[in-house]
Design a protein that fits this description.
The chain has one helix and 38 strands. By secondary structure, it is mainly β. Among the domains are: 47 residues, no CATH class; 65 residues, no CATH class; 121 residues, Beta Barrel (Virus Head Decoration Protein, Chain: A). A hairpin with a 2-residue loop joins β24 and β25. The longest helix has 13 residues.
């Protein structure tokens, strides 16, 4: 007949039929008359002995079952819903659920230990979060006499904010491991960061006390004896007054005060002038300026400046300006003010660029001279031709893409490739400048004497030999005497 398997609390776990093996739990239960039960029974004993040791939890755990987590090297028990650590703390990046009062949790992210109160987690320590320290730290600090001093450091995010000490001493900062950033002399009591001996006990940063003190030896670094008492007319340091200000002089001649809440005023009540005087580098008094009812006047004519090369005002406004101006940003043209520009920009004043050129889209007027000596026009070429190349118009059946080309014998010359035309027509067209009149450099070969006629030959080059069908290009303005039959570039008066 079947076996009924009951738990310790009296509840039935399962019923094992005859001749079967029940696998309701993580151990196998053998039914009556099941052959070969020995291996199953022995494995059950082994699993119980090793507490189901493995990296993965038993899949069919029942409450009270013990499991050795070999991955974490932890002994755990099943509470009916999950496996919990039997000793030590629960280790997790986030707070685990289901812990009992008094259970511990190690926060693996921030490396802190918490205890569960029944309603929430209470931090046990350490107080510092993550990789930094934020806590009161007891420390042993060596002074310059090689004596170790016991102190308490208030540390926030690895920075010591203040030190509590029972004695006054100077920290031995020659050893980096002993030095404390922001501290040199530690006073008996409490010393703030950056309250160094060099500053006379005045904190150089915003590491301050905030609150009310019943008494103080100093205020703002000054002793009590440094301050003037109310009613005293003698001051040895900066003092503050209300908006009503102060008056100076036997008859209250000069007043300094504030009106309209934030407007500073310097005003004379006697006389009509306020003088501004300073000593020069030689200690001689200089009357720089006088403020009077008609304006601000110099102490003497043509002696003092307003601003300097390295100390300029951003703007100066006036209805009229009399005198010489070294620089000006705009020029008045009629009723308008125009900026200067080196480019051909609309509504600007044209000025020379870095190369001395003056640029404009159009010039209307009469030119009396030009820098260069030829009249040229843009013509399309099939390739970039060198300066001085004699050109002709290609025949219709030879080159449809070019308007001119390097001349060949018997062709009629129309001009010479110019590098720097005095006047360029059709300047916005695509192509090269072709000199039509004037004097221009021309490519030549052979011996040439000044005054000889230059005739067109092949490949855009000229010479003095007039062959049949060769046309005149111009008259040589200089001679060319090469040692060999090399090409030259000479100036020629065009006669094309």
């Amino acid at each position: 007949m079947a076996y009924t398997i009951d738990r310790y609390n009296g509840t039935t776990l399962t019923v094992v039929e005859d001749g079967t093996v029940d696998q309701t739990s993580d151990i196998k239960l053998v039914g009556k008359n099941y052959a070969g039960y020995g291996e199953i029974q022995n494995e059950n004993f082994l699993h119980l002995l090793e507490n189901f040791s493995g990296a993965n939890q038993p899949p069919k755990a029942i409450s009270g079952q013990v499991w050795y987590d070999s991955g974490a090297n932890k002994l755990k028990f099943y509470d009916g819903s999950k496996f919990r650590t039997t000793g030590g703390a629960e280790v997790a990046a986030t707070a685990p659920a289901g812990l009992a009062t008094g259970d511990l949790w190690w926060d693996s992210t921030n490396e802190q230990l918490y205890a569960y109160s029944g309603t929430g987690y209470v931090l046990i320590g350490p107080q510092g979060a993550g990789t930094t320290v934020t806590q009161m730290v007891s420390a042993n600090v060596r002074d310059t006499t090689n004596v170790n001093r016991l102190v308490i450091k208030a540390v926030v995010n690895d920075e010591t904010i203040y030190i509590i000490s029972g004695a006054t001493f100077t920290i031995d900062s020659t050893d980096p491991s002993n030095a404390i950033t922001g501290f040199d002399v530690v006073k008996k009591g409490l010393t703030l960061r950056n309250t160094t001996n060099a500053t006379g006990g005045v904190t150089s940063t915003q590491d301050y006390y905030w609150g009310t003190a019943s008494n103080s030896l100093k205020l703002g670094g000054y002793s009590a004896t440094d301050f003037a008492l109310a009613g005293s007319g003698s001051f040895t340091s900066l003092v503050s007054f209300a908006d009503a200000g102060i008056s100076i002089g036997n008859s209250s001649d000069l007043k300094i005060y504030v009106e309209n809440d934030n407007e500073g005023v310097i005003k004379n009540d006697v006389g009509t002038k306020i003088k501004l005087k300073v000593d020069n580098v030689g200690g001689v008094e200089q009357h720089v300026a006088t403020i009077q009812d008609t304006g601000i006047m110099p102490g003497s004519t043509n002696a003092y400046a307003i601003g300097a090369t390295g100390a300029v005002f951003s703007e100066m406004h006036a209805t009229n300006f009399y005198g010489l101006a070294e620089n000006a940003q705009k020029m008045q043209v009629g009723a308008n003010y125009r900026n200067a520009d080196t480019a051909a920009t609309n509504n600007t004043v044209a000025v020379r660029d870095a190369s001395g050129n003056l640029v404009a889209n159009k010039f209307t007027g009469t030119a009396t001279s030009a820098e260069y000596a030829d009249l040229a026009e843009i013509y399309k070429t099939a390739e970039e031709l060198p300066t001085g190349t004699i050109v002709s118009v290609p025949k219709f059946d030879e080159d449809l893409d070019a308007e001119v080309r390097a001349i060949e014998p018997t062709e009629i010359p129309v001009g010479v490739i110019s590098a720097k035309p005095a006047f360029l027509m059709n300047s916005e067209a695509e192509g090269q400048a072709v000199a039509l009149k004037g004097r221009v450099p021309v490519r030549v070969t052979g011996i040439i004497n000044k005054g000889e006629a230059i005739y067109a030959d092949s490949q855009g080059i000229g010479h003095t030999i007039r062959a049949e069908g060769h046309f005149l290009v111009g008259i040589a303005l200089e001679s060319w005497e090469p040692e060999s039959n090399e090409e030259g570039l000479i100036e020629v008066i065009l006669k094309v």
